[in-house]
Design brief:
By secondary structure, the chain is α/β, with parallel strands linked by helices. It has eight helices and 13 strands. The strands form three sheets. The protein has a five-stranded parallel sheet with strand order 2-1-3-4-5, with helices on both faces. Strands 9-8-7-6-13 form a five-stranded antiparallel sheet, covered by helices on one side. Strand 3, helix 3 and strand 4 form a beta-alpha-beta unit. The C terminus is likely disordered. The structure holds calcium ion (CA). Calcium ion (CA) binds next to loops.
Length: about 240
């Protein structure tokens, strides 16, 4: 079954070009031309990924992103104009997983879409039934893609979750922004360091400042939460806890 992509973009020429290109790549594409219909389409169409313009009539992309992500986390690729920088940072904070600045090439768009879908798929395939405990308060259910802090579920976007698992699986090791971009985001060109910083910020806001520490001049590493810095991996079922 082909993957479904929802394009929310009010500029018809851009929307049509994106839709045509994605259809030629085998995706099932729907287009909405304003914010409210984007939200309505997302509920009906249940897309695997949403391409979302930031500046939309009716309701801006930030609000659309919030509403789309409200019940269920769907990867969101945000489209912005060059001067939308402040909004962009907010956009990443409300749950967009990635962004592209207009104008962009269709080739790059397709590459980003495929990287995002691969990432979400790869994590669910490789994750076996197991949970990772960080300190006393944090529990990551890798299979169910859920995180609890002090027993309460904390809502993370797919990218925030992947980033957290990446750190949790490599205790004591420092990751550069370039490594994170290539391993978590699937990019090879090393661009987008600000995307990493923004996602680390939201993880800290949601899970506590100590969850990830900054290693100045290098990158980030798992924080030393509580009094037990070493994560323990426990199988939930009979599934083996290690993966290759
Ligand atoms: Ca627009």
């Amino acid at each position: 079954m082909s993957r479904r992509i929802l394009v929310v973009e009010d500029e018809a020429l851009i929307a049509d070009a994106i839709a045509a290109r994605l259809r030629s790549e085998g995706f099932d594409v729907n287009v909405a031309q304003d914010g409210p219909s984007g939200v309505a389409f997302a509920q009906r169409f249940e897309p695997d990924l949403v391409i979302l313009d930031l500046m939309l009539p009716g309701m801006d992309g930030l609000e659309v992103c919030r509403r789309i992500q409200h019940d269920k986390h769907v990867p969101v690729l945000m489209l912005t104009a060059r001067d939308d920088e402040t909004d962009l940072v907010v956009g990443l904070a409300v749950g967009a997983d990635d962004y592209m600045t207009k104008p962009f090439s269709m080739r790059e768009l397709v590459a980003r879409v495929q990287a995002l879908l691969r990432r979400v798929g790869a994590v669910s395939e490789r994750s076996q039934a197991r949970s990772i405990h960080l300190g006393h308060s944090l529990e990551i259910d890798v299979d169910g893609r859920r995180v609890r802090r002090d027993g309460e579920i904390v809502h993370l976007t797919p990218t925030e979750f992947d980033l957290l698992v990446f750190f949790a699986e490599r205790p004591g090791r420092v990751a550069t922004r370039e490594l994170l971009l290539s391993e978590v985001w699937g990019y090879s060109d090393g661009s987008g360091a600000r995307t990493v910083d923004s996602h680390v910020r939201t993880l800290r806001r949601k899970l506590g400042d100590d969850v990830i520490r900054t290693v100045h001049g290098v990158g980030y590493a798992l924080g030393e939460a509580d009094d037990s810095p070493t994560p323990t991996t426990a199988p939930i079922s009979d599934a083996p806890s290690e993966r290759t």
